[in-house]
Design a protein that fits this description.
six-stranded parallel beta sheet, alpha/beta, 6 helices, disordered C terminus, Rossmann fold, 6 strands, globular
Length: 156
C-alpha cells in the first residue's frame, strides 16, 4: 500500500485525487491546502476547463493540513502529488524530496532553464546529485523547453 498526499486541492488537485482513488494499492492519507475557501468547497462540483476531475472530495478519512511542513512532519505519506499554483512547484518539490518523500510534480524546473541535476534545480537544492528514482516529472500542457531538459536529465 502506498500512502499518498496531495498538495493543492484546486482543479488539478481534484484530477490527481480522482486518479489516485482509481489505483489499487494506493490510498490518499493527506491533503495540504492553504486556502480555507478551497477546502470548504471540497464537497462541491469541480471547476475547470476540461472534464475528469473529482466532483466530490471526501475528507473524512484524510488528514488535512494548511502547511506542508506540518504534513511532512507527520510522516503519513510515501508520495506527494504536487498540484499548487505552478510558481510553488519548485519549493514544494524540494521540501518533499528533503523529507524523503517521492513526488509527482508538473513543471518543477525553474523558468531559467535549470532542471533536474543542474544547479538550482529542485533535486540539487534538496542535496540529491543523481536523478531521483521514484519521482515523476511531467507536464499537463505543451512542454516548455526547461521541462524537456528536465525530463532528458532524469531519464539519463
Amino acid at each position: 500500500m502506498i500512502r499518498v498526499g496531495i498538495v493543492g486541492l484546486g482543479f488539478m488537485g481534484r484530477m490527481h485525487y480522482r486518479c489516485w482513488k482509481a489505483i489499487p494499492g494506493a490510498t490518499i492519507t493527506a491533503i495540504c491546502e492553504a486556502n480555507p475557501k478551497v477546502l470548504a468547497a471540497a464537497g462541491e462540483p469541480s471547476k475547470g476547463n476540461v472534464g475528469g476531475a473529482a466532483d466530490h472530495i471526501d475528507l473524512k478519512d484524510v488528514s488535512v493540513h494548511s502547511d506542508l511542513g506540518e504534513l511532512l512532519a507527520t510522516r503519513s505519506v510515501d508520495a506527494l502529488s504536487i498540484t499548487p499554483p505552478t510558481c510553488l512547484h519548485p519549493d514544494t518539490t524540494v521540501k518533499a524530496l528533503e523529507a524523503g518523500v517521492h513526488v509527482l510534480t508538473v513543471n518543477p524546473a525553474r523558468r531559467t532553464g535549470d532542471a533536474a541535476g543542474l544547479p538550482g534545480s529542485p533535486a540539487v537544492r534538496a542535496g540529491l546529485n543523481e536523478p531521483v528514482l521514484g519521482s515523476l516529472i511531467g507536464t499537463s500542457r505543451p512542454t516548455p523547453p526547461d521541462c524537456v531538459v528536465c525530463s532528458e536529465r532524469v531519464c539519463e
